[in-house]
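Sequence only, no structure available. Ideas?
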Amino acid sequence: MKITPIDDGQDVYLAPDLVMAADGLTADFAIAPRGTSQNSGGLKASNGIVTAVIMCLFTDRAADPSELPDGVENRGWPGDAISLTPGKPAKPLGSKLWLLRRRALTDGILRQAEVWAVEAMQTLIDQGAAVQATASATRNGARRLDLDVALYGRDGSRVYAGKFGLLWEQVIA
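Reply:
I predicted one. Tokens follow.
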């Protein structure tokens, strides 16, 4: 499955702080240059919320063993094992959208994508970047799921809105 941001012209598109690999399919986080007033040598954050949303949606979250199809290895970010709060379990990062890649594009899959997208945004809610997240998935042809994600602040205003296309690469008969 290939996942890409969609610029539909409705909102100003802010590119995430990512550096694309030569293959055009993978990316890594951009490093802030030396001398940057904040976070010199750390992660670049000129479009922090966009980068955070992409990190939450497209980092593979470990699945419960019962969710794994036969023959599929579990994934997950290694940092999930590190708790930042002594005595409390670590909170997982990422989403389970990767589990959809071998599934037929049905109405049930659309609803599951919405649930997993909102679940992935919980990290940003826990950190105080937003108080509510919503997601809406729609089928776009036989091979693409469009996922609209929004975050809202304490006053109810939308602080982020983005649209992503999840493209099924296998042939649908």
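The chain has a mean pLDDT of 77.
Hope that gets you unstuck.
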